[in-house]
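U., I forgot to send this yesterday:
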Amino acid sequence: MGLPIHGIARASASRASSMATPGDLPAPDCGNASNPGGTHPYNRPMSYVEPWPAPALRDCYWYHTLDLPGGSVTGEWDLRGRFDDYTGHVALSGKRVLDIGTASGFLTWESEKRGADVVSFDLDHASRQKLLPFRDTIYMRDRDESERQRQAFFDSMKRGYWYCHHAFGSRARVCYGNIERIPPELGRFDVAMLCSVLEHLPDHVQAIASAASLADTVGITGPLTDSDDRRAEFVGYASHPEANFSFWRYSLGVYREVFAMLGFRISRVTRASYRHVTTPAPIEIPTIVAERGRAR
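Result:
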């Protein structure tokens, strides 16, 4: 069962926060704070984002509902108590994890609780985001103003992430850049997570390839057509301009072929239901787990 694309508007675009890059943008810039390194053999020295100062709670946007030390905040998705379902029950203790499209950071914080060393990845600038071309939207009428508004939105979501980073005393490091060209200088990862990201990209394949180039296990959570046929369903409708951030739903057959190209094999597909603020009933979302080096 796929997501009800038309019922989840505007802010759900936030999980698209590591979207494709225009050709004229520079390579990803991960900041200028020296990586303190670590004991994991996959670590490499490189630069990460300098930690942002702790922001005011009122200045934050929340993609995830979170239980913070001083109380709870309500976001779009409430995944509390469902992390293991959401990530396909991948063991994370002692693993190096890449959380791609981190948003409010729920997956990062829960991975750390399970003993993982985490790098959170998100887009560096709103100009990387692509939306569907509805004629009367600001995205089509005034691209510069649209970019300015979306940048303000993404910045407010990043403030939510950094609020949590301070509140939880997190050790996670952060890189902002382009999902299609995640910097190899980040080093190797045991697990890369692409959760509720791909449906917001015009091209799933390049994002998967980018993640798979750095990781031994890749988890994908999002809409899925349960078929071995290799097909992509376009989920945009001219009658729903409010849903301008979702492009495609791929079949299991497409994912199977793409992962085979990359030297991976899908080891399992799980399904569970999660709560979104716009829907009264939980929404069933599949999770795909693919592992490197397994015979097809």
